């Protein structure tokens, strides 16, 4: 049984179509990264999954239950970190957690939870004085109450410094190892790489790709860039490289020293052999993988290779 099934979901706000016949599934036990630029429709999707908003058309089921009909049961088994941090200024971290524990009828220790998110020192301080990162940590601790079967985290790294973002990833991993399914949104590709089994990329309310990070990388043309320094280069050799089956493009980057930049999807040795066959001496070479930013860009901008 999938943890989340989104089926033909459409959501309009007046003239604005935020989601258009969106369908995808999150499998039980996986960490699914929900990625997309600002305004792509991530929060709208999450709000409908949690029944904070109603769809214009389409259906959503969570943990095998209809999202609208069983929203209370779903929320009981789900830990949520909503978009935009909303803490109560006059309540302490302990009081926040006690509230979450009571409303879930859970048996949890506020201190242990705050220890996990690195906020135990501020346990009896009022949230009004918290930094953005501290508030975010508190909200995460609240999401962890009651060992939920499903964690839904909307932009969980917002307001966190690099250490905080790393701790967040560690917690996602720990929760997943405990058995929880994790669904989290982000507009930063790097944040999903380390923890996600699969990534869905949303653009203008439509899912443009769903795959592992590795699979997404492979789908970007010219996945690897090969930079070769040679003793000389001529048009004939450049043409020979371009005509190789695995090569997507080849250009001369500089003449001093002569350097060729080649986009390769398969064997790199064929490129080096083509040069050497023409009596050109390869003095040095290096390879660079397509960065995750390249992958994200290729799916979400009009200039990318996956642009529609
Ligand atoms: N309550 C609303 N009323 C009108 N339009 C809305 C409302 N909520 C969202 N939208 C619109 O729906 C689209 C999707 O917005 P949404 O907040 O879901 O995107 P997002 O991917 O979460 O973006 P971000 O990364 O900026 O949070 C946007 O065009 C937005 O302006």
UniProtKB/TrEMBL annotation:
Domain spans labelled ABC transporter: 4-229
Entry keyword Glycoprotein: no
Record has Cytoplasm as a keyword: no
Source organism per UniProt: Natrinema versiforme JCM 10478
Alphabetized CDD domains for the sequence: ABC_DR_subfamily_A
Full protein name: ABC transporter-related protein
Entry's family note: Belongs to the ABC transporter superfamily.
InterPro entries: AAA+_ATPase, ABC_transporter-like_ATP-bd, ABC_transporter-like_CS, DrrA1/2-like_C, P-loop_NTPase
SUPFAM superfamilies linked to this entry: P-loop containing nucleoside triphosphate hydrolases
Keywords, in A-Z order: ATP-binding, Nucleotide-binding, Transport
UniProt GO molecular function: ATP binding; ATP hydrolysis activity
Superkingdom, taxonomy of origin: Archaea
Lineage: Archaea, Methanobacteriati, Methanobacteriota, Stenosarchaea group, Halobacteria
């Amino acid at each position: 049984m999938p943890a989340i099934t989104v089926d033909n979901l459409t959501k309009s706000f007046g003239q604005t179509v935020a989601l258009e016949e969106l369908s995808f599934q999150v499998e039980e036990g996986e960490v699914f990264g929900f990625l997309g630029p600002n305004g792509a429709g991530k929060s709208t999707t999450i709000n409908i999954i949690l029944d904070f908003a109603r769809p214009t058309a389409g259906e959503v089921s969570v943990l095998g239950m209809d999202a609208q009909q069983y929203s209370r049961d779903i929320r009981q088994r789900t830990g949520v970190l909503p978009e935009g941090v909303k803490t109560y200024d006059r309540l302490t971290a302990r009081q926040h957690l006690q509230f979450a524990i009571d409303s879930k009828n859970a048996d949890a220790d506020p201190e242990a939870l705050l220890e996990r998110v690195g906020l135990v020192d501020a346990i009896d301080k009022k949230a009004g004085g918290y930094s953005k990162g501290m508030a975010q940590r508190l909200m995460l601790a609240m999401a962890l109450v009651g060992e939920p079967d499903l964690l839904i985290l909307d932009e969980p790294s917002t307001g966190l410094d690099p250490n905080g973002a790393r701790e967040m990833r560690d917690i996602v991993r720990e929760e997943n190892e405990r058995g929880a399914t994790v669904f989290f949104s982000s507009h930063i590709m790097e944040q999903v790489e380390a923890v996600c089994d699969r990534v869905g990329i949303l653009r203008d309310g439509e899912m443009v790709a769903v795959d592992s990070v590795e699979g997404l990388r492979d789908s970007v043309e010219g996945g690897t860039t090969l930079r070769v320094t040679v003793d000389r280069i001529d048009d004939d050799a450049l043409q020979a490289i371009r005509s190789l089956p695995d090569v997507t493009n080849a250009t001369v980057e500089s003449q001093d020293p002569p350097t060729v930049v080649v986009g390769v999807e398969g064997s790199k040795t064929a490129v080096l052999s083509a040069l050497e066959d023409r009596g050109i001496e390869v003095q040095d070479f290096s390879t660079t993988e397509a960065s995750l930013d390249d992958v994200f860009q290729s799916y979400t901008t009009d200039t990318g290779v996956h642009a529609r």
